[in-house]
Amino acid sequence: MSAAMTPSIKLKHLAPGFTDPALQSQAVFRNALHALSHPGSVQTLSMNEALHGMRPPEGADPAAAALLLALLDQDCKLWLSPRFAHGDALTWLRFHTGCVAVTEPERADFLWVGQANEMPNLGQCGRASAEYPDQGATCVVQAHGLETGGGWTLRGPGIDGAKALQVVGFGDGFVAQWHAQQAHFPCGVDIFFTHENTLLGLPRSTQIEA
Question: Per the domain annotation, does 1 fall within a domain?
């Protein structure tokens, strides 16, 4: 991103991040790890622990903002969907984490997607390589709701048999892209879906039946 495109940081207008970065990051990590280890299980971030004192940017789910605060650092490249690209989200994350913004999803380590119709094609996201499959991108995607039962059937590692899940706003088009990326497994992207102060994990190893 050029200097002309980089927003200036006005400290007096900047919303607070974590009040206790070490403890709150640990709390978020625990929830995120459980979410990826048990795909489709909805985790709730505590307002008194993980989210205490944090004020996310306009339009951001608290869970999504906290997750990015915990995961990003100065070595991470971040892509923002239009919902956030022209607001204060980048300034907020740059100040609190030191991350670097990129304008192409294929260059990003992390992607923050504000709503379903802004989701880039998974094939355009950084999928790493056969030599380094662990370097695939992580997408933090805001949904209109996360509901157990109905919708998709999830199978794979971390799931006892099968798990029913509905991610409100995401349908057959997303599932088709998910199937397409699994043809390149173990390359691919991992996804966290969020809604308000809840999140769930969808690692690339998970199989989805619509």
Answer: no
